[in-house]
Write a structure and sequence with these properties.
single chain; alpha/beta; Rossmann fold; Transcription Regulator spoIIAA; 14 helices; binds 5'-deoxyadenosine; binds iron/sulfur cluster
């Protein structure tokens, strides 16, 4: 007799690392007979993969859990789990406040999920937020056999030792750990065999990757060089980088590695040296600008993106004006900007906050400038030819969509199935969220 598969619904909040982790958790729970579903309503297990990086993460979690109460009341066998960085930060508190939660698992313990799931039944509740000595990836490598779409993430590094004064990552994700190169190369090979043509290397501090590697180059540049030798892998990206870890070899790779895409997310957070110092970023605005110059010398058409925080404690109008000046000097293709939000346990949380209306005003000014730059970068593509990796049908009939080398969303008219193909496209129009083009056949 075969039993019907159990259904798993995972809600993912936050960063690409969480998206990657959710995929691995779904695969790990596959061993317990779970298949994925798109709604909580028909699930046998609901897993909330949380993010703690900014505001109200915990409140959002508690309200989402509140909304699951009727489901749990109707179906007491429904298992509810909390994963991710809020799980790591709040641990026992979640179990104490929310009787409907069956298990809480921190990001370093996802490989233990199958046994936790088995243990969490009949009212037994399980919490695991240790930082274990074993490598969770020994048990969680991306499953190569399953047929995949043409793009994939590959976590190469996790955690952070930088301790920026505003950031919870060093506490929730722990110390910086690099995965070994041989594992990563094998995993990438498996992904390519399953149909992947573009891999984005992930890490909270990805360019600090320092796994052992054969060959003349060390560090992330060495890893990229070896990945580039995999036949069938056509595009490589990496995110997120810290300016201080952009070494010469990595900058040079942007000029010499044809498979490395001309796109770099390099957060600067602020343009004021005073604020950068208070943030413990350990670089100046000038050093960042010099770095950008060197990266552009290696790859002139590179598209740069960044993260910014406005209203960090102590930020004056003059400091903020320096942020605007830095943005104007760099010219970003896109960027994320956030109002500062005090994270419990971080050094900056102890400091006096900038009034919220001042933060709102600064955020609006900064976003207006960044939006103009983003639009200019999109419009600059019109008339140019770029390759696009096609991923899925577009919103309209007979339309296909994918990503350009610069990570712009591009759609073209086509009646053919273009999934997984990399084709030259002439860009004809820049819309607010995507570029329109036509295949150069
Ligand atoms: N407040 C606001 N933004 C933050 N970020 C990280 N921590 C905070 C915080 N406490 C932003 C940074 C980082 C991005 C992932 O989130 O800009 O680069
Ligand atoms: Fe957080 Fe990034 Fe700073 Fe690390 S480098 S502490 S992840 S902002």
């Amino acid at each position: 007799m075969t039993t019907a598969p159990k259904k798993l619904y995972i809600k993912t909040y936050g960063c690409q690392m969480n998206v990657y982790d959710s995929e691995r958790m779904a695969e790990a729970l596959g061993s317990q007979g779970y298949v994925s579903t798109d709604t909580a309503e028909d699930a046998d297990m609901v897993l909330l993969n949380t993010c703690h990086i900014r505001e109200k993460a915990a409140e959002k979690l508690y309200s989402d859990l509140g909304r699951l109460k009727p489901l749990k009341a109707a179906r007491p066998n429904l298992k509810i789990g909390v994963a991710g960085c809020v799980a790591q930060a709040e641990g026992e508190e979640i179990v104490r406040r929310m009787p409907l939660v069956d298990l809480v698992v921190g990001p370093q313990n996802y490989h233990r999920l199958p046994e936790m799931e088995a243990a969490a039944h009949g009212g037994a509740r399980v919490v695991d937020t240790d930082f274990p000595v074993e490598d969770k990836f020994d048990h969680l490598a991306a499953r190569p056999k399953a047929r995949r779409g043409p793009t994939a993430f590959l976590t190469v590094q996790e955690g952070c030792d930088k301790f920026c004064a505003f950031c919870v990552v060093p506490y929730t994700r722990g110390a910086e750990v690099s995965r070994p190169a041989d594992r990563l190369l094998a995993e990438a090979q498996g992904l390519v065999e399953a149909g992947v043509r573009e891999i984005t290397l992930l890490g909270q501090n990805v360019n600090a990757w320092h796994g052992e590697i054969a060959g003349p180059l060390t560090g992330l540049a060495g890893l990229i060089g070896q990945l580039a030798q995999i036949d069938g892998l056509d595009r490589i990206r990496y995110t997120t980088s810290h300016p201080n870890d952009m070494d010469d070899a990595l900058i040079e790779a942007h000029g010499s590695q044809a498979k490395l895409m001309p796109y770099l997310h390099l957060p600067v957070q602020s343009g004021s040296d005073r604020i950068l110092k208070a943030m413990n970023r350990k670089h100046t605005a000038e050093a960042y600008l010099r770095l950008i110059e060197r990266i552009r010398a290696a790859r002139p058409d590179i598209l740069l993106t960044s993260d910014f925080i406005v209203g960090f404690p102590g930020e004056t109008d003059a400091d903020f004006a320096e942020t605007l000046a830095l943005v104007a000097a760099v010219g970003y293709g896109a960027a994320y900007s956030f109002k500062y939000s005090a994270r419990p346990g971080t050094p900056a949380a102890e400091r006096a906050e900038v009034p919220v209306d001042v933060m709102d005003d600064r955020l609006q000014q900064l976003q207006a400038l960044l939006t103009r730059q983003q639009k200019a970068a999109q419009e600059a593509m019109v008339g140019r030819t770029t390759t696009v990796l096609f991923e899925k049908p577009g919103r309209l009939d007979r339309q296909w969509g994918g990503k350009s080398e610069h990570l712009h969303a591009v759609h073209v008219p086509s009646a053919n199935d273009l999934r997984g193909q990399i084709l030259p496209v002439r860009i004809t129009e820049a819309g607010p969220n995507s570029l329109a083009g036509e295949l150069c056949l």
